[in-house]
Design a protein that fits this description.
The protein has 319 residues and is α/β, with parallel strands linked by helices. It is 28% helix and 22% strand.
Length: 319
Protein backbone atom coordinates (compact mmCIF):
# COMPACT_ATOMS: atom_id res chain seq x y z
CA UNK A 1 0.00 0.00 0.00
CA UNK A 2 1.45 3.30 -1.01
CA UNK A 3 0.50 6.71 0.24
CA UNK A 4 1.11 10.08 -1.30
CA UNK A 5 3.69 12.37 0.24
CA UNK A 6 1.10 15.13 0.66
CA UNK A 7 1.12 16.38 4.23
CA UNK A 8 -2.10 16.20 6.18
CA UNK A 9 -3.25 19.75 6.87
CA UNK A 10 -6.91 19.30 7.75
CA UNK A 11 -8.48 18.54 11.10
CA UNK A 12 -11.15 15.91 10.75
CA UNK A 13 -11.16 12.21 11.03
CA UNK A 14 -9.53 9.95 8.60
CA UNK A 15 -11.64 6.90 9.34
CA UNK A 16 -5.46 0.13 5.46
CA UNK A 17 -7.17 -1.67 3.81
CA UNK A 18 -8.72 -4.59 5.41
CA UNK A 19 -9.64 -7.32 3.08
CA UNK A 20 -9.78 -9.79 5.95
CA UNK A 21 -11.58 -13.06 6.02
CA UNK A 22 -14.32 -11.92 8.36
CA UNK A 23 -17.47 -11.80 6.27
CA UNK A 24 -19.93 -9.00 6.79
CA UNK A 25 -23.20 -8.59 5.01
CA UNK A 26 -21.73 -5.39 3.63
CA UNK A 27 -21.23 -1.98 5.10
CA UNK A 28 -24.47 -0.83 3.50
CA UNK A 29 -26.63 -2.78 5.97
CA UNK A 30 -25.14 -0.78 8.82
CA UNK A 31 -26.87 2.45 7.81
CA UNK A 32 -28.26 4.23 10.81
CA UNK A 33 -26.56 2.17 13.49
CA UNK A 34 -24.49 5.18 14.53
CA UNK A 35 -27.37 6.46 16.64
CA UNK A 36 -27.68 3.44 18.92
CA UNK A 37 -25.54 2.54 21.89
CA UNK A 38 -23.84 -0.82 21.65
CA UNK A 39 -24.31 -2.60 24.94
CA UNK A 40 -21.83 -5.35 24.19
CA UNK A 41 -18.71 -3.27 23.99
CA UNK A 42 -15.22 -4.69 24.16
CA UNK A 43 -14.05 -6.47 27.24
CA UNK A 44 -11.24 -8.41 28.77
CA UNK A 45 -11.06 -10.79 31.67
CA UNK A 46 -7.86 -9.57 33.29
CA UNK A 47 -8.26 -8.20 36.77
CA UNK A 48 -6.58 -4.96 37.74
CA UNK A 49 -4.53 -6.72 40.39
CA UNK A 50 -2.83 -8.95 37.81
CA UNK A 51 -2.48 -6.41 35.01
CA UNK A 52 1.09 -5.18 34.53
CA UNK A 53 0.22 -1.51 33.98
CA UNK A 54 -2.83 -1.10 36.22
CA UNK A 55 -0.97 1.20 38.60
CA UNK A 56 -0.54 3.78 35.86
CA UNK A 57 -4.27 4.44 35.61
CA UNK A 58 -6.08 7.15 37.58
CA UNK A 59 -7.48 5.73 40.82
CA UNK A 60 -11.12 6.33 39.87
CA UNK A 61 -10.76 4.33 36.65
CA UNK A 62 -8.95 1.50 38.45
CA UNK A 63 -11.81 1.38 40.94
CA UNK A 64 -14.51 1.44 38.26
CA UNK A 65 -12.70 -1.14 36.13
CA UNK A 66 -13.96 0.51 32.94
CA UNK A 67 -12.80 3.06 30.39
CA UNK A 68 -15.74 4.37 28.38
CA UNK A 69 -14.86 4.76 24.71
CA UNK A 70 -16.74 7.06 22.33
CA UNK A 71 -16.89 5.68 18.78
CA UNK A 72 -18.87 5.86 15.55
CA UNK A 73 -19.36 2.11 15.14
CA UNK A 74 -20.32 2.06 11.46
CA UNK A 75 -16.92 2.03 9.80
CA UNK A 76 -15.83 -1.48 8.87
CA UNK A 77 -13.24 -2.85 9.23
CA UNK A 78 -12.06 -0.32 11.83
CA UNK A 79 -15.14 -0.64 14.02
CA UNK A 80 -18.53 -2.12 13.17
CA UNK A 81 -21.32 -4.22 14.60
CA UNK A 82 -21.50 -7.90 13.72
CA UNK A 83 -24.05 -10.22 15.30
CA UNK A 84 -24.80 -7.57 17.93
CA UNK A 85 -21.17 -7.18 18.97
CA UNK A 86 -18.68 -4.40 18.33
CA UNK A 87 -15.79 -5.82 16.30
CA UNK A 88 -12.92 -4.55 14.19
CA UNK A 89 -9.39 -3.19 14.38
CA UNK A 90 -10.08 -0.63 17.11
CA UNK A 91 -12.03 -2.99 19.42
CA UNK A 92 -9.30 -5.62 19.12
CA UNK A 93 -6.59 -3.09 19.97
CA UNK A 94 -8.76 -1.82 22.83
CA UNK A 95 -9.05 -5.34 24.24
CA UNK A 96 -5.27 -5.73 24.14
CA UNK A 97 -4.84 -2.38 25.91
CA UNK A 98 -7.38 -3.41 28.53
CA UNK A 99 -5.42 -6.55 29.35
CA UNK A 100 -2.35 -4.44 30.05
CA UNK A 101 -4.31 -2.00 32.20
CA UNK A 102 -6.66 -4.43 33.95
CA UNK A 103 -9.86 -2.71 32.83
CA UNK A 104 -12.63 -3.14 30.29
CA UNK A 105 -12.79 -0.71 27.37
CA UNK A 106 -16.50 -0.26 26.76
CA UNK A 107 -17.46 1.16 23.35
CA UNK A 108 -20.30 3.71 23.31
CA UNK A 109 -21.81 4.33 19.87
CA UNK A 110 -22.52 7.82 18.51
CA UNK A 111 -22.17 10.15 15.54
CA UNK A 112 -18.60 10.92 14.68
CA UNK A 113 -18.88 14.68 14.53
CA UNK A 114 -20.30 14.73 18.09
CA UNK A 115 -17.58 12.61 19.68
CA UNK A 116 -15.24 15.38 20.82
CA UNK A 117 -18.19 17.26 22.32
CA UNK A 118 -19.12 14.08 24.17
CA UNK A 119 -15.57 13.66 25.44
CA UNK A 120 -15.49 17.21 26.74
CA UNK A 121 -18.88 16.67 28.40
CA UNK A 122 -17.46 13.58 30.19
CA UNK A 123 -19.89 11.17 28.53
CA UNK A 124 -16.87 8.97 27.91
CA UNK A 125 -13.18 9.17 28.76
CA UNK A 126 -11.53 8.51 25.40
CA UNK A 127 -12.38 8.45 21.70
CA UNK A 128 -11.29 5.52 19.57
CA UNK A 129 -12.90 5.88 16.17
CA UNK A 130 -10.31 5.99 13.39
CA UNK A 131 -9.82 9.63 14.33
CA UNK A 132 -6.92 11.44 12.70
CA UNK A 133 -4.43 13.09 15.01
CA UNK A 134 -4.06 16.63 13.64
CA UNK A 135 -2.76 19.90 15.04
CA UNK A 136 -6.17 21.53 14.62
CA UNK A 137 -7.81 18.84 16.73
CA UNK A 138 -5.04 19.10 19.30
CA UNK A 139 -5.59 22.84 19.55
CA UNK A 140 -9.39 22.91 19.28
CA UNK A 141 -9.41 24.74 15.94
CA UNK A 142 -12.26 24.60 13.42
CA UNK A 143 -10.49 23.64 10.20
CA UNK A 144 -13.12 25.36 8.05
CA UNK A 145 -12.57 28.87 9.41
CA UNK A 146 -9.49 28.65 11.63
CA UNK A 147 -11.43 29.75 14.70
CA UNK A 148 -10.89 28.43 18.22
CA UNK A 149 -13.84 26.22 19.18
CA UNK A 150 -12.61 24.29 22.22
CA UNK A 151 -9.73 23.22 24.40
CA UNK A 152 -8.56 20.56 22.00
CA UNK A 153 -7.56 17.00 22.84
CA UNK A 154 -4.41 14.94 23.20
CA UNK A 155 -3.81 11.88 21.03
CA UNK A 156 -2.10 8.57 21.65
CA UNK A 157 -1.16 7.49 18.12
CA UNK A 158 -1.61 3.86 17.12
CA UNK A 159 -2.04 3.47 13.35
CA UNK A 160 -1.43 5.19 10.00
CA UNK A 161 -3.81 5.58 7.04
CA UNK A 162 -4.65 7.89 4.16
CA UNK A 163 -7.81 8.74 2.23
CA UNK A 164 -8.86 6.89 -0.92
CA UNK A 165 -11.34 7.47 -3.74
CA UNK A 166 -13.99 4.76 -4.01
CA UNK A 167 -15.96 4.50 -7.26
CA UNK A 168 -18.45 2.13 -8.83
CA UNK A 169 -17.08 -1.17 -10.11
CA UNK A 170 -15.52 -0.68 -13.50
CA UNK A 171 -15.04 3.04 -12.80
CA UNK A 172 -17.67 4.11 -15.38
CA UNK A 173 -16.89 7.83 -14.93
CA UNK A 174 -13.16 7.36 -15.39
CA UNK A 175 -12.18 8.93 -12.06
CA UNK A 176 -8.44 8.66 -11.47
CA UNK A 177 -7.68 11.56 -9.13
CA UNK A 178 -9.26 14.40 -7.17
CA UNK A 179 -9.10 16.63 -10.26
CA UNK A 180 -11.60 14.33 -11.97
CA UNK A 181 -14.22 15.16 -9.33
CA UNK A 182 -14.67 18.78 -10.43
CA UNK A 183 -18.31 19.44 -11.30
CA UNK A 184 -19.32 15.96 -10.14
CA UNK A 185 -21.44 14.71 -7.23
CA UNK A 186 -19.36 13.25 -4.40
CA UNK A 187 -20.96 11.58 -1.37
CA UNK A 188 -19.12 11.13 1.93
CA UNK A 189 -19.45 11.20 5.70
CA UNK A 190 -19.55 14.64 7.26
CA UNK A 191 -17.06 15.78 9.87
CA UNK A 192 -14.26 13.74 8.34
CA UNK A 193 -10.88 14.36 6.80
CA UNK A 194 -12.48 13.25 3.55
CA UNK A 195 -14.90 16.18 3.74
CA UNK A 196 -12.04 18.62 4.26
CA UNK A 197 -10.12 17.12 1.35
CA UNK A 198 -13.19 17.42 -0.90
CA UNK A 199 -13.78 21.05 0.13
CA UNK A 200 -10.15 21.96 -0.53
CA UNK A 201 -10.30 20.23 -3.91
CA UNK A 202 -13.56 22.02 -4.78
CA UNK A 203 -11.86 25.38 -4.21
CA UNK A 204 -9.03 24.26 -6.47
CA UNK A 205 -11.55 23.31 -9.12
CA UNK A 206 -13.08 26.79 -9.21
CA UNK A 207 -9.66 28.42 -9.10
CA UNK A 208 -8.74 26.39 -12.18
CA UNK A 209 -11.87 27.59 -13.98
CA UNK A 210 -13.81 24.35 -13.48
CA UNK A 211 -17.08 23.71 -11.69
CA UNK A 212 -17.02 23.09 -7.95
CA UNK A 213 -17.64 19.62 -6.54
CA UNK A 214 -21.31 18.96 -5.73
CA UNK A 215 -20.62 17.68 -2.22
CA UNK A 216 -23.25 15.61 -0.42
CA UNK A 217 -22.54 14.71 3.21
CA UNK A 218 -24.18 12.14 5.46
CA UNK A 219 -24.13 11.15 9.13
CA UNK A 220 -22.65 7.73 8.35
CA UNK A 221 -20.40 6.35 5.64
CA UNK A 222 -22.87 3.55 4.71
CA UNK A 223 -25.34 6.26 3.65
CA UNK A 224 -22.72 7.73 1.34
CA UNK A 225 -21.89 4.28 0.01
CA UNK A 226 -25.53 3.69 -0.81
CA UNK A 227 -25.63 6.87 -2.91
CA UNK A 228 -22.56 5.68 -4.79
CA UNK A 229 -24.00 2.21 -5.31
CA UNK A 230 -27.20 3.72 -6.70
CA UNK A 231 -25.22 5.88 -9.13
CA UNK A 232 -26.35 9.11 -7.46
CA UNK A 233 -22.71 10.09 -6.92
CA UNK A 234 -19.50 9.38 -8.83
CA UNK A 235 -17.31 8.75 -5.79
CA UNK A 236 -17.05 8.37 -2.04
CA UNK A 237 -13.95 9.47 -0.16
CA UNK A 238 -12.99 7.50 2.93
CA UNK A 239 -10.02 5.93 4.64
CA UNK A 240 -8.03 3.50 2.53
CA UNK A 241 -8.72 0.55 4.86
CA UNK A 242 -12.43 1.21 4.68
CA UNK A 243 -12.48 1.88 0.95
CA UNK A 244 -10.60 -1.33 0.19
CA UNK A 245 -12.74 -3.33 2.62
CA UNK A 246 -15.94 -2.15 0.95
CA UNK A 247 -14.49 -2.84 -2.50
CA UNK A 248 -13.74 -6.37 -1.32
CA UNK A 249 -16.95 -7.19 0.54
CA UNK A 250 -19.91 -5.22 -0.84
CA UNK A 251 -21.99 -7.65 -2.92
CA UNK A 252 -19.01 -9.97 -3.04
CA UNK A 253 -16.81 -7.32 -4.61
CA UNK A 254 -19.24 -6.39 -7.39
CA UNK A 255 -20.17 -2.86 -6.25
CA UNK A 256 -17.03 -0.77 -5.84
CA UNK A 257 -13.34 -0.37 -6.57
CA UNK A 258 -10.56 1.89 -5.31
CA UNK A 259 -8.94 4.26 -7.78
CA UNK A 260 -5.78 6.35 -7.52
CA UNK A 261 -3.30 6.61 -4.66
CA UNK A 262 -3.83 7.29 -0.98
CA UNK A 263 -4.15 10.98 -0.10
CA UNK A 264 -2.66 12.70 2.95
CA UNK A 265 -1.59 9.69 4.99
CA UNK A 266 -1.40 10.39 8.72
CA UNK A 267 -1.85 8.83 12.16
CA UNK A 268 -4.98 7.64 13.89
CA UNK A 269 -5.00 8.57 17.56
CA UNK A 270 -6.88 7.70 20.73
CA UNK A 271 -8.26 11.06 21.84
CA UNK A 272 -8.06 11.98 25.52
CA UNK A 273 -9.00 15.18 27.35
CA UNK A 274 -6.03 17.48 27.88
CA UNK A 275 -6.85 17.50 31.60
CA UNK A 276 -6.49 13.72 31.83
CA UNK A 277 -2.76 13.33 31.26
CA UNK A 278 -2.46 10.32 33.58
CA UNK A 279 -4.93 8.33 31.49
CA UNK A 280 -3.21 9.49 28.31
CA UNK A 281 0.18 8.34 29.55
CA UNK A 282 -1.23 5.02 30.77
CA UNK A 283 -2.70 4.34 27.32
CA UNK A 284 0.60 5.21 25.67
CA UNK A 285 2.41 2.82 28.01
CA UNK A 286 -0.11 0.08 27.17
CA UNK A 287 0.28 0.74 23.43
CA UNK A 288 4.04 0.52 23.76
CA UNK A 289 3.65 -2.76 25.62
CA UNK A 290 1.46 -4.44 22.99
CA UNK A 291 3.75 -3.23 20.21
CA UNK A 292 6.69 -4.78 22.06
CA UNK A 293 5.00 -8.08 22.98
CA UNK A 294 3.60 -8.72 19.50
CA UNK A 295 -0.11 -8.49 20.27
CA UNK A 296 -0.41 -5.37 18.11
CA UNK A 297 1.14 -7.08 15.09
CA UNK A 298 -1.16 -10.09 15.47
CA UNK A 299 -4.21 -7.83 15.45
CA UNK A 300 -3.09 -6.03 12.29
CA UNK A 301 -2.31 -9.36 10.64
CA UNK A 302 -5.80 -10.59 11.48
CA UNK A 303 -7.32 -7.63 9.60
CA UNK A 304 -4.69 -7.55 6.82
CA UNK A 305 -3.63 -4.00 7.69
CA UNK A 306 0.02 -4.43 8.65
CA UNK A 307 1.08 -1.66 6.26
CA UNK A 308 -0.53 0.79 8.68
CA UNK A 309 1.53 -0.35 11.64
CA UNK A 310 3.44 2.10 13.79
CA UNK A 311 6.67 1.09 15.51
CA UNK A 312 6.27 3.66 18.27
CA UNK A 313 3.23 5.11 19.97
CA UNK A 314 3.64 8.88 20.01
CA UNK A 315 1.64 11.55 21.79
CA UNK A 316 0.32 14.24 19.43
CA UNK A 317 2.45 13.07 16.52
CA UNK A 318 0.04 14.35 13.86
CA UNK A 319 0.62 17.41 11.71
Amino acid sequence: MTASSTRRTTAARSRLAAVGATAVAGALILTGCGDHTDKGGSSNSSGASSAPLASKLPADIRKAGVIKVGSDIAYPPVEFIQNGKTVGIDPDIADALGKQLGVKLDFQNGKFDNLIVGLQANRFQVIMSAMSDTKDRQNGINSDNGQKVGNGVDFVDYFTAGTSILVQKGNPKGVKSLDDLCGKVVALQKGTTSEDIAKTQSKKCTKDGKKAIDLQTFDTDPEALLRLKQGASVADLNDFPVAAYNAKTSSGGKDFEVTGDQIEAGPYGIAVSKTNTQLRDALQAAMSAIIKNGDYTKILQKWNVTDGAVTESKINGGS
